[in-house]
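Q: Give me the 3D complex with guanosine-5'-monophosphate.
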Amino acid sequence: MKEKAIIITAPSGAGKTTLVKKLLASRTDLAFSVSACTRDMRQGEQDGVDYYFLDTQEFQRKIEANEFLEWEEVYKGMFYGTLRSEVNRIWTNGQAVIFDIDVKGAKHLKAQLGEKARAIFIAPPSVEVLKERLQGRGTESEESLKKRLDKSMAEMAYEKDMDLTVVNDDLEKAFTELSHRVNEFLQN
Ligand code: 5GP
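A: Here is the predicted complex, encoded as structure tokens.
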């Protein structure tokens, strides 16, 4: 297979990670690019599977050594980045690479990878649904909910920078459409 990449991005709360996991479970021609990050490992996560968990110094060293295709301070003091070595490992293995990445990272990756990449924006069906989904994540204050909603709204503005949009109204429907779009891109 030619060197190809699927970039999946979305505002938080749109359900992109669920879709990426479903896609990966359904086929062998795609492999997930494990990012590096400096945040703490959460319960249930594994180093080298969910992320490569690095300390800030190690992350900085990799920036200087040009080991990242893109990197970003997604939250204050928390760095995330795509390793060139991951992408090359997957391509050498004859697979296409799939990224689950925030909107800014997606824009950077698309600029770096050009024609090799197809950037897919996962959109919530409406602002109301997005709000419900963010609320559903747990008990949080009105203020922090508002902050997260504002962030998601700002992230919606990146839709126009991507190649296509899949609306995640119904998970199964969105998955079918996403699979179809991925097939289309990988077959050509
Ligand atoms: P979390 O800490 O919840 O796993 O991820 C936080 C955010 O960082 C998510 O929006 C995720 O998509 C983004 N992210 C994960 N890996 C990368 C990466 O390699 N580069 C960038 N720019 N963002 C990433």
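A quick observation: The first strand starts at residue 5 and ends at 9.
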